[in-house]
């Protein structure tokens, strides 16, 4: 190892420097040596085998053939390895040395020191690049000698059998058919035409020259590992290497340009809907240009394909692979931590990620076998492979990974009972759902091992909670009087703490207004409306409806209170019913009397109904108070309708989030056997169904059963139901099927103008059929699935009858 003469001051007098450099060089060599040797040896062996067998067709000396082949293949492999590895090794050394220095001494304090460190790493890499290249060449030479011997063995056996039969063996590279030998040989130049007795003269000198440089190399002293002197590189090879590195640098510059242009585009053109988001999967991306930046992005994307060739595809794929994981980490972080103000960083990251996937897809098209094999190896060895399910789904969708190896590795990971066992199970379930059920990217045969082990895990009873935690779990189940399960969590900010205190009191006041207990002046309807409008004014004064985050949190708390009240009332009612059944079983006479009881009470839905009434009132109040002239009434009415739809969409998103969190919490607790830690066991879909049903009736039946409401309102409900489908929330399946077939929703959606609602309902119907597909294919229907399937068949019958 050698260090440059000029080093920055902060690296001087560092006794551990030489050790860090040695470790960085070793790691860099180990990282690139295998793929470089594999590619170089494969190309060299294929070329050598075809040429040698043709040239030595008339030579009966197999040892002469073996010697010439060995000299040629070692020379070719050595030079190919040197050309391929030199620039890759230099870049890898710089990265490893940078990482080692930062890990040892921390991040540089300023930009100047950072530049000095980068320059030092570059200089150290240049000083030691010959050492690394020499090691790679030595390995390639040794591996090529072994591989050519194996590759030539079948052809040599055929030559021996032909000689024993007194025939001339014509290898396929020299025609392959003795009857066509003369015709084939006649088409070749005299210098390349195989001759009886073997090659001679200048032709033989070419093979001897392959070993001339090797034989002339001075041997290193015993016990030392000094590298061989670098030999002259063919001009064509140097040109190819430089072209590959220029293409790679051009690709990296293109990605940086796309990221910069996307940032500038969103800075001046923030997205207003899904179609205005820049995405390669949107048809509008190529059809229209939203801005000059958008046009330049399209030009950059179109310029990627010509950069990738068969020889550079593997290099591009390996370079982009790690970037995909880094982008996924940033995307997940951006999704989990919402900014205080709306940010477009997530959209930029997603666009760059799509472009990187496009690069991988193009690389695979150029060199299917090697790129797929390399990406499979890289993915299955990556430490974060089970954390990013969307990377796996995208790789499977683009055929970038071998499914057999992926299935085997995932099955092995599922068998392990380590700390990440739950994460692997969730990963496997998500991949199966997306790739096998939703998009049908693969077949059950492709994930056979994974499906079998998941079936065994599903049949295994959940592990009981540890004995040491039972006391704590029991104490957590019994909340104090008047407290809710939500109140046990510590607020994360001052706003949350204030809302946790004020929201329940405001909701109690609103419930009193809805139930009539807060009415005055004789309790007339007029006085109740006045109180309701006064309550809305109070919410505005206290800032509950101004800031977006405050409003979202306020609605979330009210929905959680409503769900908790409903669930506790349902549980209490179920206990009372059980007690009454026990009494009825003892007293037959009393049973006859109780059969004439009053209709079932809906007191458990009191809070849910109150919350839905509040939402309807707020939606109806959107746009009021803004006086407009006669000529502006039409435009004002359109703006009011947009405001109503916007608020409805926000409320549906908040309630959907509460539902998804509730379902996930219950499901996770059941899988881990920790249901005792929950305030109640099981997912209750009744309060959510009641809320959605109330909104449908209030907003879509305002003008009568035969009227068609605003299409945007129906589409908002349709999008929400699509998010809450049984494919994602199976516990909500019965309520979901009831909602999409609701007498207020389905007919009005299908009666919209120009059949605008048909595609939306078609999506819901297809989602339902996808949910039933696995059970129908296996012909194993549980009682719940059977009842749900009957409901779906009834919907189909109604559609055939009313909308043939």
Automatic annotation (TrEMBL):
Boundaries of every CCR4-Not complex component Not1 C-terminal domain copy: 710-804
Region (Disordered): 461-493
A molecular-function term among this protein's GO annotations: molecular adaptor activity
Domain of life: Eukaryota
One GO cellular component, as annotated: CCR4-NOT core complex
Domain CCR4-NOT transcription complex subunit 1-like NOT1 connector: 305-462
Swiss-Prot/TrEMBL GO biological process terms: negative regulation of translation; nuclear-transcribed mRNA catabolic process, deadenylation-dependent decay
UniProt domain CCR4-NOT transcription complex subunit: residue ranges: 17-163
PANTHER family: CCR4-NOT TRANSCRIPTION COMPLEX, CCR4-NOT TRANSCRIPTION COMPLEX SUBUNIT 1
Name used for this protein in its record: CCR4-Not complex component Not1 C-terminal domain-containing protein
Lineage of origin: Eukaryota, Discoba, Euglenozoa, Euglenida, Spirocuta
């Amino acid at each position: 190892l050698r260090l440059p003469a000029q080093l920055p001051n902060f690296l001087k007098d560092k006794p551990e420097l030489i050790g860090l450099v040695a470790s960085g060089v070793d790691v860099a060599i180990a990282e690139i040596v295998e793929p470089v040797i594999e590619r170089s040896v494969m190309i060299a062996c294929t070329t050598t085998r075809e040429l040698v067998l043709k040239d030595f067709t008339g030579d009966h000396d197999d040892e002469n053939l073996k010697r010439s082949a060995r000299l040629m293949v070692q020379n070719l492999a050595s030079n190919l390895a040197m050309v391929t590895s030199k620039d890759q090794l230099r870049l890898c050394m710089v990265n490893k040395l940078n990482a080692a220095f930062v890990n040892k001494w921390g991040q540089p304090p300023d930009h100047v020191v950072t530049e000095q460190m980068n320059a030092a790493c570059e200089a150290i890499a240049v000083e030691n690049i010959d050492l690394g290249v020499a090691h790679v060449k030595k390995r390639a030479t040794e591996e090529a000698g072994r591989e050519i011997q194996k590759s030539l063995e079948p052809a040599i056996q055929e030559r021996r059998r032909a000689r024993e039969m007194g025939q001339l063996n014509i290898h396929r590279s020299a025609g392959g058919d003795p009857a066509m030998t003369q015709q084939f040989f006649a088409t070749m130049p005299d210098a390349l035409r195989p001759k009886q007795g073997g090659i001679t003269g200048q032709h033989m000198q070419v093979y001897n020259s392959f070993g001339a440089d090797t034989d002339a190399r001075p041997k290193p002293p015993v016990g030392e590992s000094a590298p061989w002197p670098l030999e002259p590189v063919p001009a064509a090879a140097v040109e190819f290497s430089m072209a590959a590195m220029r293409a790679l640098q051009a690709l990296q510059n293109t990605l940086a340009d796309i990221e910069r242009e996307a940032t500038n585009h969103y800075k001046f053109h923030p997205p207003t809907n899904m179609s205005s988001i820049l995405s390669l999967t949107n048809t509008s991306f190529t059809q229209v240009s939203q801005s000059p930046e958008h046009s330049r992005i399209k030009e950059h994307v179109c310029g990627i394909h010509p950069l990738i060739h068969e020889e550079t595809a593997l290099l591009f794929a390996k370079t982009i692979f790690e970037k995909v994981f880094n982008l996924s980490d940033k995307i997940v972080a951006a999704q989990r931590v919402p900014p205080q103000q709306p940010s477009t960083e997530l959209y930029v990251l997603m666009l760059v990620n799509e472009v990187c996937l496009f690069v991988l897809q193009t690389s695979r098209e150029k060199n299917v076998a090697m790129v797929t094999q390399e990406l499979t190896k890289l993915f299955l060895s990556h430490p974060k492979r089970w954390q990013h399910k969307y990377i796996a789904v995208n790789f499977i969708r683009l055929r970038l990974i071998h499914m057999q190896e992926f299935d085997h590795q995932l099955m092995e990971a599922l068998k392990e009972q380590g700390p990440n066992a739950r994460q692997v199970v969730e990963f496997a379930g998500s991949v199966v759902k997306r790739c096998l059920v939703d998009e049908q990217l693969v077949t059950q045969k492709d994930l056979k091992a994974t499906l079998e082990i998941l079936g065994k895990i599903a049949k295994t009873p959940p592990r009981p909670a540890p004995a040491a935690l039972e006391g704590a779990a029991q104490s957590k189940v019994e909340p104090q009087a008047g407290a809710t399960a939500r109140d046990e969590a510590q607020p994360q900010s001052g706003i949350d703490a204030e809302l946790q205190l004020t929201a329940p009191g405001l909701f109690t006041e609103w419930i009193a207004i809805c139930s009539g207990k807060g009415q005055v002046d004789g309790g007339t309807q007029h006085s109740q409306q006045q109180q309701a409008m006064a309550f809305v004014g109070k919410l505005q004064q206290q800032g509950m409806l101004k800031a977006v985050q405050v409003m979202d949190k306020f609605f979330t708390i009210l929905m959680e209170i409503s769900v908790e009240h409903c669930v506790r009332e349902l549980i209490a009612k179920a206990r009372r019913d059980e007690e009454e059944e026990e009494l009825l079983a003892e007293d037959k006479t009393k049973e006859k009397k109780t059969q004439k009881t009053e209709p079932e009470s809906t007191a458990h839905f009191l809070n849910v109904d109150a919350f839905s009434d509040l939402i309807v009132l707020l939606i109806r109040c959107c746009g009021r108070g803004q006086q407009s002239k006669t000529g502006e009434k039409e435009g004002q009415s359109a703006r009011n309708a947009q405001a109503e739809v916007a608020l409805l969409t926000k409320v549906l998103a908040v309630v959907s989030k509460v539902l998804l969190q509730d379902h996930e919490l219950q499901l996770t607790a059941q899988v881990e056997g920790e249901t005792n830690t929950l305030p109640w066991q099981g997912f209750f879909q009744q309060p959510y169904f009641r809320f959605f049903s109330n909104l449908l009736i209030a907003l879509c039946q305002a003008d009568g059963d035969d009227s068609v409401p605003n299409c945007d309102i129906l589409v908002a409900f349709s999008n929400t139901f699509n998010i809450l489908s049984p494919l994602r929330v199976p516990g909500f399946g019965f309520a979901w099927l009831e909602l999409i077939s609701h007498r207020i929703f389905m007919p009005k959606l299908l009666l919209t103008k120009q059949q605008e609602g048909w595609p939306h309902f078609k999506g819901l119907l297809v989602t339902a059929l996808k949910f039933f597909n696995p059970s129908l294919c296996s012909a194993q229907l549980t009682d719940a699935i059977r009842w749900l399937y009957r409901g779906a068949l009834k919907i189909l019958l109604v559609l055939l009858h009313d909308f043939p």
